Fold each of these.
Amino acid sequence: MAKAEIGVIGLGVMGANLALNIADNGYHVAVYNRTTSRTDEFAASAGELADRVTACATLEEFVAAIKPPRPVIIMVKAGAPVDEQIAALQPLLEANDIIIDAGNANFRDTMRRFTDLEGSGLTFIGMGVSGGEEGARHGPSIMVGGAEAAWKRVEPVLTAISAKYEGEACAAWLGENGAGHFVKTIHNGIEYADMQMIAEVYGVMRDHLGMDAPSIAAVFSAWSTGPLDSYLIDITAEVLKVSDVVSNRPIVDIIVDAAGQKGTGRWAVIESQMMGVPATAIEAAVAARSLSAMRAERKNAQVRFGLPPQQARREGQQVIDDLEKALLAGKVAAYAQGFAVMTAASAEFDWKLPMATTARIWRAGCIIRSRFLDEIATAFTDTPDVANLAMTPAFSKIIEETDGSLRRIVSESVLNGLPVPALASAVSYFDTYRRERGTANLIQAQRDFFGAHGFERFDADGAHHGPWGGEQG
Ligand code: NDP
């Protein structure tokens, strides 16, 4: 059998589908999985692609099956398993072979791996992949970090397997070392915010308007033809329509209201905090998932406090129209924050992250894919150095058009005791961002009072101290 052009290690959900995608695109792929039975199952299920797949039982066999210089994609559980795989591969590989970690690595681990492999003769790439099972099989969004020359060597296969938006590949080189995994982390942070805001809007329809799941599904379906058109809105409409086969009730009414998380949203928040860039919508979304998991405590608190009395409500369609605009406004805040974090990281790590390209490769394949991202790509192309997405003409206009709706939804929700933490964070973010005269003068006075930290004055240069306790500063 001819040698493979590329290898994939890890035949879990993502690796198996990525390998089939590669074979489907005409490449010969060698595969290996720690548990051999999984490799056998994969080989047996490859169907008509089987003649382009070499299933290997050992790493030695796997490496020998690939034509040098070998591109090897590792798609295993993130963390220590990736280090173990690299350590096991290293003695078997030759100079110029490329190891590509395609899992959800913490970009700081990716940076360390670049350093560890320096001088080894091997090339390393940290690659973010988004799109879940379907994306991996039929075209994910691919975010590459590493040396540009290494990207050039694997560009043909990665662009071939990636999603396409109007014919354009959703795969790109974004910068050196950890750039690809950093961008994937922010992608996931934005995904958390997007999902949380959709859940908040669903909560208003369910608990304030008293709508059932199929009626809410119809609203999301209608929205999917407007400015909110996106994969997440589409799947929300889909899942709300599905009935449970056992109880015959809407399946969402049977699913426990405690969300899981694997950590990428939390990493996005940690990194934004490390850089001093607010990502309040992502923070609210991560915190909301954590609060959702505290089911027993929430139950006790409801017994103790009850729920606030419901206020008179507006006509249902008025609320629904406002919800659509509020969701759009919230999205603008989340994306503006996510892109601002990437701008700061780009400067801090000297990556020169291309914002328009990032938005472009998120337009298809990934979980947050949407029409909205095409508008973001255009906004960053037209105004590449803008400080905040909110300040681009197109997004300033959206903010103006949706501002009233966001305020009404947040204030009505607060009055009715409906939690809308991500949408509320969006209002506060805009209100703080656009107000020239803030309230941090008082914080500076407090800091100087207890810690002699000093402050600046409007009417004089230099650092000053207050006349606290009667002393002149
Ligand atoms: P699965 O749980 O389906 O598969 C895990 C894979 O990792 C298996 O091949 C498993 O091998 C392997 N593995 C686990 N521990 C080790 C180890 N110590 N040494 C060697 N191999 C090991 O995971 P996914 O395919 O979902 O995820 C793979 C990566 O892709 C993760 O980093 C994940 O975060 C990321 N990802 C996942 C997405 C998704 O939607 N699922 C989307 C985007 C990225 P074995 O069969 O021997 O247990």
Amino acid sequence: MKKHIAVLAGDGIGPEITDAAIAVLKKIAEKYGHEFTFEPLLLGGCAIDACGEPLPAHTVEHCRASDSVLLGAVGGPKWDALPGDRRPEKGLLGIRKAMGLYSNIRPAKLWSALADASPLKRHLVENGVEIIVVRELTGGIYFGERGVCTDEELGETAWDTEKYSVKEIERIARIACELAEKRTKRVVSVDKANVLESSRLWRRTVHAYAEKHYPDVTVTDMLVDNAAMQIVKDPAQFDVLLTSNMFGDILSDEAAQVTGSIGMLASSSLGDTACGLYEPIHGSAPDIAGKDVANPIATILAAAMMLRDSFGMTEEYAAIERAVEKTLSDGFRTADIMSEGMKKIGCREMARRIAENL
Ligand code: NAD
């Protein structure tokens, strides 16, 4: 199969981890007889430096024309003082919106070789944890109306708006129910319906949609504060967790931590076409950038999800998962997942070993 992949390396550790994923994809192409081409494009801080804006039109155009997009991470202290609409993160939100990617799937899986890396007590995780967070990506408070003003009584004031339509809720509910159908047929839908009007609409819509279209999927509701508590109290109770944009942003990082390291978790963003955007869930880690110590596994797994979910290459996906498992069980670790008795290696070496184990 011939596939053209747009690569948005971004900032900080972005270039290191996308290079690592490309090395693994090249090995897959060689082994399975595919032809992958990689097109580097600018996004985030590096785009601001090169052309004064975080999301150049050229990047949008070429991402849309690609078969799929691999993203590293954006942002860093260098651009922190810029106004909100010119910051690197604006580029990230912009590319998701421009590509019509409304669903973000973030599997938080505890790898058996890394059971000791979880900060939770062993009995809470020993039977395995795999929480698939299905996060709405292009609505809610990150995209709602916002502003700053000077209130006569309160002084300087700022506001953001959480807003959801039935259409937006239904399309993300469909993604969660579809996934649940292939798994345990259970969805936990997260909201704050005791306080927020938008959450009450969320709850009504998710139930009505699931009952009509996925009668064999059981949807239960959980308030976001309780969900945050349950993820550390009993993570194994969850399978598919359906959330709004902001709740999913927060809970998926918490779920990630339960599984050991943020450096292990990948995510996919999809809309109505096969062209998706695949990235690690972590940020650009400026504190370790350029040192060859970043964990590339999240990005390598993101590339694997691209093969499965955008290109239909299920065998190749499974091969990468097995190669990661083998490398970990051989005792190789990057610094973030290092434990006693294991062999510490860098980002490049980790990618080389995973590619070798394919
Ligand atoms: P971060 O995820 O970049 O880092 C948090 C901590 O985890 C740091 O100690 C970092 O060293 C470590 N870490 C992250 N990824 C790692 C990896 N692959 N291997 C080993 N250790 C890893 O979050 P942050 O520090 O809050 O944010 C840094 C920058 O990244 C900010 O500018 C933020 O806006 C941006 N950010 C970008 C994205 C994205 O591009 N999707 C997501 C989150 C944050």
